[in-house]
């Protein structure tokens, strides 16, 4: 790591949102729009010397609110957050597209940005002409651009369409060329937004590899925004998590990803279940899933514990308990049961605790919850059945796979395996 290349101090960005008066029609005719504009213009001219008053149809919205951070040369930093967190606004300010309302940004070096499909290129110019135009914008001379030209074309895989205006390119072709130009024209800072999602998986992998090389081998700085936590985890060591325009976390990517994943889940849900205070008799008093990480996040392959507490007012010798783990569509993917004739809750009243410990939890990444049964086996009397309690999330962030990213619905269960390469047979 080297000197600071980006310094952001107390940065804020305000937008003004306009609303209609309540009770008015949501849709207006062209005549109404023209009439209203003319009326408003007249009012402004008549009241220009008067003191302005607050307009109830206008509202301030702070897309960014007093954020500060520093980024060193050669760092590859992820920027994550839910939709509306302020990620794109921050990148537009760093790319000098938008001015901040407050605060200061100091940037050393040239910045190449790939923010939205359609930005950075002139639609009437050909691919070849846009390559030279972007190089000139970055301050490169013609000889420097020519030296990189073949690498750009080869990476983008658009050789046949170089002399076609880019307005005729598909979105995938456009992004391939735009990324190739941004990555190969040697800017000190490369800023890449979620726009890579437009490309196919093979090209996304290619881009991630190039961004890794840009930072680790070429010593340039990369800012990467993505909703793919696998891509963020593979590419970055540091992550900035934004929430409602503020920095919620700035640090290790692994921790940032867990915080983000927890925030995406419904905050009203919890890995802890508590029975209503009005319950009586024999029932499940509380239940909890003890995951490997905080916020109900569990890393695949790590030990997991399920804990249950039973309120017993009338002990019976045939009490039994079982629970299922449900996937996102509430299908049972596995079941566990407890039936022990010597169990204390069959013999004594009080609060009794059961723990189910799994030394290596192999369910694939996804969202899960529990379904429980508490019953009397001898009479088949179901005392209590609970659905969708104690939700938790399994992630694959600690499990590396070089070929391609883990896909959400790739499988339900991932088992350990050992591969052996056999001998060669003659045909």
Automatic annotation (TrEMBL):
SMART domains: AAA (SM00382). The keyword Transport applies. One of its GO terms (molecular function) is ATP hydrolysis activity. Pfam families: ABC_tran. Keywords: ATP-binding, Nucleotide-binding, Plasmid, Transport. SUPFAM superfamilies: P-loop containing nucleoside triphosphate hydrolases. GO terms for cellular component: membrane. Residues 43-269 form the ABC transporter domain. CDD domains: ABC_KpsT_Wzt. Belongs to the ABC transporter superfamily. This is ABC transporter related protein.
């Amino acid at each position: 790591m080297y000197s600071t290349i980006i310094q952001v101090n107390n940065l804020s960005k305000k937008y003004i949102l306009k609303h209609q008066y309540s009770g008015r029609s949501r849709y207006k005719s062209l005549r109404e729009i023209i009439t209203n504009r003319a009326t408003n213009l007249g009012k402004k001219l008549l009241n220009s010397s008067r003191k302005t008053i607050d307009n109830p149809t206008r509202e301030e919205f702070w897309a960014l609110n007093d954020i500060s951070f520093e980024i060193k040369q050669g760092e590859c930093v992820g920027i994550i957050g839910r939709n509306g967190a302020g990620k794109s606004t921050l990148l537009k300010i760093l790319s000098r597209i938008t001015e901040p309302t407050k605060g200061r940004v100091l940037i050393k070096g040239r910045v190449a940005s790939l923010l939205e499909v359609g930005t950075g290129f002139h639609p009437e110019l050909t691919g070849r002409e846009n390559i030279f135009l972007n190089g000139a914008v970055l301050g490169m001379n013609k000889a420097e651009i020519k030296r990189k030209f073949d690498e750009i074309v080869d990476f983008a895989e658009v050789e046949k369409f170089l002399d076609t205006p880019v307005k005729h390119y598909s979105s995938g072709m456009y992004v391939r060329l735009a990324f190739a130009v941004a990555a190969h024209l040697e800017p000190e800072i490369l800023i890449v937004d979620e726009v890579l999602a437009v490309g196919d998986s093979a090209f996304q992998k290619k881009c991630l590899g190039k961004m890794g090389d840009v930072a680790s081998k070429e010593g340039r700085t990369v800012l990467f925004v993505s909703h793919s936590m696998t891509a963020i985890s593979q590419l970055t060591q540091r992550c900035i998590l934004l929430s409602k325009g503020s920095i919620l976390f700035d640090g290790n990517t692994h921790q940032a990803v867990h915080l983000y994943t927890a925030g995406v889940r419904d905050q009203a849900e919890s890995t802890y279940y508590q029975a209503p205070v009005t319950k009586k008799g024999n029932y499940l008093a509380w239940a909890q899933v003890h995951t490997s990480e905080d916020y109900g996040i569990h890393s695949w392959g790590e030990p997991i514990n399920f804990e249950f507490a039973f309120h017993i007012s009338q002990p019976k010798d045939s009490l039994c308990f079982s629970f299922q783990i449900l996937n996102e569509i509430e299908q049972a993917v596995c079941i566990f049961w407890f039936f022990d004739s010597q169990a204390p809750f069959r013999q004594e009243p009080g609060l009794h605790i059961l723990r189910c410990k799994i030394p290596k939890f192999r369910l694939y990444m996804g969202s899960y919850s529990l379904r429980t049964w508490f019953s009397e086996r001898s009479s088949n009397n179901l005392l209590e059945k609970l659905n969708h309690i104690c939700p938790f999330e399994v992630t694959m962030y600690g499990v590396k796979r070089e070929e391609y990213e883990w896909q959400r619905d790739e499988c339900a269960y991932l088992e350990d395996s050992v591969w052996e390469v056999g001998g060669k047979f003659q045909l």
